[in-house]
Amino acid sequence: xxxxxxxxxxxxxxxxxxxxxxxxxxxxxxxxxxxxxxxxxxxxxxxxxxxxxxxxxxxxxxxxxxxxxxxxxxxxxxxxxxxxxxxxxxxxxxxxxxxxxxxxxxxxxxxxxxxxxxxxxxxxxxxxxxxxxxxxxxxxxxxxxxxxxxxxxxxxxxxxxxxxxxxxxxxxxxxxxxxxxxxxxxxxxxxxxxxxxxxxxxxxxxxxxxxxxxxxxxxxxxxxxxxxxxxxxxxxxxxxxxxxxxxxxxxxxxxxxxxxxxxxxxxxxxxxxxxxxxxxxxxxxxxxxxxxxxxxxxxxxxxxxxxxxxxxxxxxxxxxxxxxxxxxxxxxxxxxxxxxx
Length: 341
Description:
Layout: H1 17-39, E1 40-47, H2 51-58, E2 63-66, H3 73-86, E3 91-95, H4 102-110, E4 113-116, H5 122-141, E5 146-149, H6 164-170, H7 177-184, E6 186-193, H8 199-211, H9 219-231, E7 235-241, H10 246-255, H11 264-282, H12 291-301, H13 310-340
Parallel strand pairs: 1-7, 2-5, 2-6, 3-4, 3-5
Antiparallel strand pairs: 6-7
Helix pairs in contact: 8-13, 11-13, 12-13
């Protein structure tokens, strides 16, 4: 291990060349292509705007920040698509709450995953965030590409909004917040599934939390979500790359120089809004035919819980599919208003 990386030994991704190649070709590539064939109607890598501009943005490494649809596949399929198209293999952040078995941790670390520690006390959480921020900064200084979801956990209602605490963690260190943001070279990526295989599990969880605010997911619930997400039917899947946010950060500061001395909360929110706009504009909007109502009813039938509230669950299922459409339409309208000014 490089002496400069020793301080990150408990979170770093393993980068042993021969074993990485073995994991890649004996595990990752065959499994991912099999899951693609069996559970989708195709996975497409697409672009928001000028493809050449986006390719220039990622040439020297990028921070791919995505919305979060699947615990395992979000990063895995993006990594495969980028490897095939550009021979980029991002380092990927994964929460230690998913390490139900030691072999899972070993396997993902050999597949360029680093550990995002969760579940500690406030002081330990701050120290973990500082360590992770320093590790990510070191990777970016080396020109490495990185993947991380825009929030901790998935948005159950598909209302994808960047979590300010994630961006705060990424920019810990020097005082110049906007310089830290630009050094990351954030290139947001929109992930759209035609059908979410975990939709009924998310709806079930929402009612359980509504009925009992103290309800918490168990380890076996995470395993069920992982298994369902991998094996379930997704229809068409689109990963849409968007440009680096750096030019928009520069434009924002030119228009609002007071942000340089604003509160950290206001600075974080301003950048989160830019990331959200990229992701919302990048959604693929699928046409929903008359069969969609029957699909919702079939998902509702899969939910088995005490005091099943069908009206609430049906509303939440529809909401999961309508929120991306609403956010996309809103982002398009705001873009039109900006162009007209």
